[in-house]
Structure to design on (814 residues):
């Protein structure tokens, strides 16, 4: 099994907490470096055609325009003189931003700017609050994306886990065979099922909304508002769950089956332990680490699928923002969205690493055999 | 070859794999047919609509088989040309180069719904002064509706004539002209009479009436009047080639990397493992989107980028764990004993040994890449020239096909995508069971 959580090497001494702490530290460092690399690659690709330079120059020009409009002394100057002052200031500011130094050095400065999402203003795109700061536009959309994605992930994890346990108990039954037969459906991404769900439940049956976040106009009371959001979430969440659930159940069921034929399970049965206890102690415990690894890989895929899913459902998250920004040629927002997706992936994996450290005894005990 | 045949034989023992193989086989046949039917250049120009190929197909029309449903009888496109049979044309000279032409374009209309549009095309020959025509619409119940007079030249889009619409009581021409005075759809024999005046010696006038229907072809048409079948057929080789090349590129490169890492071990392996861990968490789709948005939407650039971003993919760890025990196996030792070099061992001894085991993984990957192309297309980053399934879906989505009830437009490309995914998945999952006997047991 592909293990993503791999960075830890065998430790000989130290308390359990220390080991877990050290493991988390190593993972945090690896992931931190990864996110820097991801953002740097983004910057490199974006600036191959000088697009990041353009963003920076746009920021300078905007600042100068604001300054010219506000400075009465400058406005009083004759036209030619004024333009000379403006041109000189522009040059100075460009030099101050380092646009005249070689790209390898400049790129490091871009990297820190991109990491802090300091990408200036958009030209036309606005946040709902009316801000044109790229950072604010992005961060305003973030909660929507997190709500949709978080709900789906949790639902997916528990449904798949209990589904797999349930099927491993009924291995070979009609239901089991049906799920195995449905496993290939996961080849299609979530948005693909989203289209079908919209077609059936919104267009033909008129049961659920076509898309969006909340009914228009938004309901006045908190309770109704939440209910309306929930109604809008049903289809996108279902689409994502359908897109991933069957193959997860199939894979995890196989893990369970492999582990339930181990000798120590037979031993536990011989001891007369209840089947519930066997499942919890002897089957679930050893299978959780590979399950979490497989779940992590699935979540990475789901993040990617969510971009298009949000677009299809008009869900006001980062994905649909990315799509709109492309339509409006807002390069700064596009670059910012890529950066924020890099962060989201890394944070997701780090959270799963914490879970991994909790469930994998090898992290706690430190008796780590090298992966092979 | 014999191993290939035995694998196929093995596969056909499973019903699901047989179904999968039939689907893939059918797709390959369609792909070859598409390549024989239209060269890539022809397909592109067809999809671009060069030379007004799609002038006479209706806009957003359902597939014709919709009429097979009980109670559905939507009009098909009717074309009447004065140069073809079933029409009459008489020219009577008046002297001094002046002559009159009378053209009658009769047709039967026996459908349950109104046509989509009506347009009259002219074919004229003249030197200086264009012929002039006056048009009269004859209904089955004997009424004569004047459509006015005009110079014969550019096509007369009867449905777009707002002046005519006002005269017909504010209703669009394609409805008003096919109604009885009570406003009910009227079936029967209609005709358009074109009375033309030619002002020059040797001038000529022909007319071609197109009553656009609501159905067309086997797959319907899109908002640009293009037959969706073109994209469905020509999308097949594109999807197969894209999926196959991406899967081959991604799998082969990762495999080689894993073998090199395991063979050389030490820091090489360490660097590769580390690169893989970084690569796994790269936001691949956003990066592809950015490349498509900033640089090129060409499907080949995308293919290259997809492969490049998948060199250090998660399957590196799977391959690595396969190579590790192999490295110590006796036949490798024997190879080393007779003096085989590093690269010879990697490419001639290690890679061939694991390749068959990877077949299922490889087959299962293919639909994922095909869907990736569709994903990019839905985001508006599809190849600007080639007709692909994803682009049809994207057009349908952008034009609100689902909201407006044009379901065929979304369902048909989605169906072929699903079929392809199903075919490869069925074969892949069965192969997995054959190759990994542990799965067969459980």
């Amino acid at each position: 099994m592909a293990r993503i959580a791999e960075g830890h090497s065998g430790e000989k001494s130290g308390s359990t907490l220390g080991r877990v702490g050290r493991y988390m530290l190593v993972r945090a460092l690896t992931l931190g470096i990864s996110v820097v690399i991801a953002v740097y690659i983004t910057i490199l690709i974006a600036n191959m055609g000088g697009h990041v330079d353009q963003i920076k120059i746009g920021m300078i020009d905007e600042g100068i325009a604001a300054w010219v409009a506000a400075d009465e002394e400058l406005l009083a100057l004759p036209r030619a003189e004024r333009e000379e002052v403006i041109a000189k200031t522009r040059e100075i500011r460009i030099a101050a931003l380092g646009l005249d130094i070689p790209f390898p050095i400049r790129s490091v400065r871009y990297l820190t700017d991109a990491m802090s999402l300091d990408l200036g203003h958009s030209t036309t795109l606005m946040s709902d609050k009316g801000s044109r700061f790229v950072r604010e536009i992005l961060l305003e959309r973030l909660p929507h994306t997190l709500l949709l994605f978080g709900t789906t992930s949790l639902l997916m994890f528990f449904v798949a886990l209990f589904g797999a346990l349930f099927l491993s108990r009924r291995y070979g039954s009609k239901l089991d065979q049906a799920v195995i037969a449905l496993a290939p459906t996961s080849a299609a991404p979530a948005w693909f099922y989203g289209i079908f769900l919209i077609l059936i439940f919104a267009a033909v049956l008129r049961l659920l909304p076509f898309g969006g976040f909340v009914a228009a106009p938004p309901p006045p009371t908190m309770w109704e508002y939440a209910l309306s959001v929930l109604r809008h979430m049903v289809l996108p969440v279902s689409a994502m769950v359908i897109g991933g659930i069957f193959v997860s159940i199939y894979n995890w069921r196989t893990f369970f089956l492999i582990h339930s034929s181990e000798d120590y399970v037979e031993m536990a049965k011989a001891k007369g332990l209840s089947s519930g206890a066997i499942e919890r102690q002897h089957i679930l415990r050893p299978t959780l680490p590979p399950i979490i690894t497989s779940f992590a890989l699935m979540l990475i895929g789901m993040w990617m699928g969510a971009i298009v899913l949000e677009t299809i459902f008009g869900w006001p998250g980062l994905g649909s923002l990315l799509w709109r920004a492309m339509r409006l040629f807002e390069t700064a927002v596009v670059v910012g969205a890529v950066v924020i997706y890099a962060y989201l992936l890394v944070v997701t994996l780090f959270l799963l690493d914490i879970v991994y450290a909790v469930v994998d005894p090898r992290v706690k005990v430190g008796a780590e055999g090298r992966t092979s | 070859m014999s191993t290939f045949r035995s694998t196929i034989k093995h596969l056909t023992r499973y019903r699901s794999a047989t179904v999968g193989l039939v689907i893939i086989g059918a797709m390959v046949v369609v792909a070859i047919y598409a390549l024989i039917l239209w060269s890539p250049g022809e397909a592109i120009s067809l999809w671009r609509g060069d030379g007004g190929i799609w002038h006479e197909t209706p806009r957003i029309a359902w597939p014709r088989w919709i009429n097979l449903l009980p109670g559905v009888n939507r009009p098909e496109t009717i074309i009447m040309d004065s140069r073809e049979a079933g029409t009459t044309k008489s020219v009577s000279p008046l002297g001094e180069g002046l002559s009159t032409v009378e053209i009658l374009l009769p047709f039967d209309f026996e459908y349950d719904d109104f046509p989509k549009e009506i347009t009259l095309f002219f074919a004229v020959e003249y030197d200086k002064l264009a012929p002039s025509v006056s048009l009269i619409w004859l209904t089955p119940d004997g009424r004569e509706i004047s459509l006015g007079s005009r110079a014969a030249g550019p096509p007369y889009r009867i449905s777009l004539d707002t002046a005519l619409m006002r005269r017909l009581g504010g209703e669009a021409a394609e409805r008003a002209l096919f109604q009885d005075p009570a406003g009910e759809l009227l079936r029967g024999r209609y005709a358009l009479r074109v009375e033309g005046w030619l002002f020059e010696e040797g001038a000529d006038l022909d007319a071609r009436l197109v009553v656009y229907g609501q159905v067309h072809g086997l797959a319907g048409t899109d908002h640009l009047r293009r037959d969706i079948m073109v994209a469905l057929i020509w999308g097949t080789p594109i999807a197969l080639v894209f999926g196959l090349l991406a899967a081959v590129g991604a799998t082969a490169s990762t495999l080689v990397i894993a073998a090199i890492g395991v063979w050389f071990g030490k820091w090489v392996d360490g660097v590769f493992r580390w690169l893989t861990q970084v690569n796994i968490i790269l936001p691949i789709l956003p990066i592809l989107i950015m490349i498509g948005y900033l640089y090129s939407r060409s499907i080949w650039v995308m293919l290259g980028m997809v492969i490049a971003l998948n060199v250090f993919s998660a399957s590196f760890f799977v391959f690595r764990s396969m190579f590790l025990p192999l490295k110590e196996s006796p036949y490798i030792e024997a190879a080393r004993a007779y003096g085989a070099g590093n690269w010879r061992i990697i490419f001639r001894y290690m890679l061939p040994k694991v390749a068959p085991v990877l077949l299922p993984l490889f087959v299962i990957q293919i639909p994922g890449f095909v869907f990736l192309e569709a994903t990019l297309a839905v985001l508006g980053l599809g190849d600007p020239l080639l007709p692909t399934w994803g682009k049809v879906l994207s057009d349908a989505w952008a034009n609100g096909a689902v909201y407006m009830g044009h379901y065929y437009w979304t369902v048909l490309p989605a169906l072929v995508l699903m079929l392809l995914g199903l075919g490869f998945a069925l074969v892949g999952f069965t192969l997995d069971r054959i190759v990994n006997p542990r799965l067969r047991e459980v």
Residues 222-260 of chain A form the longest helix (39 residues). Chain A touches chain B through 67 residues (CB under 8 Å).
